[in-house]
Write a structure and sequence with these properties.
Keywords: Aminopeptidase, Hydrolase, Protease. By secondary structure, the protein is mainly α. It is about 55% helix and about 10% strand. It is built from 13 helices and 8 strands. The strands form 3 sheets. The protein has a 3-stranded mixed β-sheet with strand order 1-2-8. A 3-stranded antiparallel β-sheet has the order 6-3-7.
């Protein structure tokens, strides 16, 4: 399924100060404060004989990854991910996505500092579901997605969360690198840019991590993941074309339903003919499909090839690469898009 473990969260306490204590911002500030107040230093937990051995091992791994990210990838050197919080729940926040009934564009929400994003985050699952239900009553397509990690973009020292330990060792290292990349640079209002940049840093950083340790990286499932995402993006394109037409609402609803059934059939055909025994995406298709569930796809990968070429163009020097990314971020949106497209189609040297 699409990976939502590291969508950036608005710097919550600052938002509260700027917007007043509304119920939405109030729950954000309360949730953030609870995280900050529950932090326990990782070094102290590792030294504590009462810490379970497997937890100690993973905390030590996270500390090594944290040091590597700053020393080798030119990512921020601060106290983020040097403390730990046991959430006692599977996710840290739940994000609510919404679209109009006949649209694949997100209903965006704009915040100070972080800019506009395609979701609203809630620390309480019940609140998230309640918000989604209210939007659905207005005729919108909605989706509630649990998130295992997020970044406050360097405004606070983000803790390592128990939800981040649900993944294997490779994903734990990857998410720490990804989140620190968001702290190194974040462009308000351009989710595809931010996520593609952090995803490239994550992927290349993880490769260098295993090289440094003389270890063989785990077998990648990228080919299956790419094929799955390509199917979903193709369906989204067809829906976009459908919604741009002049059909009656009744006919458009019928065609919309048919498109989601086509997507399910295409997936089953691909799985059965090319992926024997690989059923990891079955759960995603077993849930109801709507426009909102398609929103995150493509955000993490769209500009990864462009950033890979930018890295090569700067002789694989991380500091020079990050500065080049910052320069791209200073361009007007149209010129930035042109630059990314040129990089994305350029041949590797």
């Amino acid at each position: 399924m699409i990976d939502l473990r590291h969508l950036p969260l608005v710097p919550l306490l600052l938002v509260l100060l700027l917007n007043g204590c509304s119920s939405y911002y109030g729950q954000l500030a309360e949730g953030q404060w609870q995280l900050l107040s529950q932090r326990r230093p990782i070094a102290r937990l590792v030294a504590d004989p009462a810490t379970p051995p497997e937890l100690r091992r993973r905390l030590q791994l996270s500390s090594a990854a944290r040091d590597f990210a700053s020393a080798q990838l030119a990512l921020p050197q601060n106290d983020s991910y040097r403390s730990f919080v046991d959430l006692q729940r599977p996710y840290v926040v739940w994000n609510v996505f919404a679209t109009d009934e006949f649209s694949v564009a997100a209903r965006e929400h704009c915040f100070p500092i972080a800019g506009c994003v395609a979701y609203r985050g809630y620390f309480d699952q019940g609140r998230a579901r309640g918000a989604a239900a209210l939007l659905a009553e207005q005729g919108l397509d909605t989706w509630v997605a649990g998130v295992e990690a997020y970044s406050t973009l360097g405004w606070f020292d983000d803790p390592l969360l128990s939800s981040m330990l649900r993944r294997d060792d490779a994903r734990l290292v990857a998410v720490i690198i990804h989140e620190l990349a968001h702290q190194r640079f974040y462009l308000p209002g351009d989710t595809a840019f931010n996520e593609s940049y952090a995803s490239f840093v994550e992927q290349e950083g993880l490769r260098q991590w295993y090289t440094m340790r003389n270890e063989t990286p785990p077998t990648s499932d990228d080919a299956h993941r790419r094929a799955f995402i390509e199917q979903v993006l193709a369906s989204r394109t067809r829906l976009e074309q459908l919604y741009a037409g002049d059909l009656s609402p009744e006919q458009m609803r019928k065609e919309k339903t048919a498109e989601f059934e086509r997507l399910r059939r295409d997936y089953r055909s691909l799985r059965d003919s090319h992926w024997p025994g690989d059923t990891r995406y079955d759960a995603w298709f077993s849930a109801p499909l709507n426009n909102a569930r398609l929103l995150p796809f493509g955000l993490y990968d769209q500009w990864v090839p462009a950033f890979a070429r930018l890295f090569e163009a700067h002789d694989r020097d991380w500091e020079a690469f990050h500065h080049a990314v910052e320069n791209l971020g200073e361009l007007p949106a149209a010129r930035r898009l042109e630059a990314l497209e040129r990089l994305g189609t350029a041949k590797r040297g």
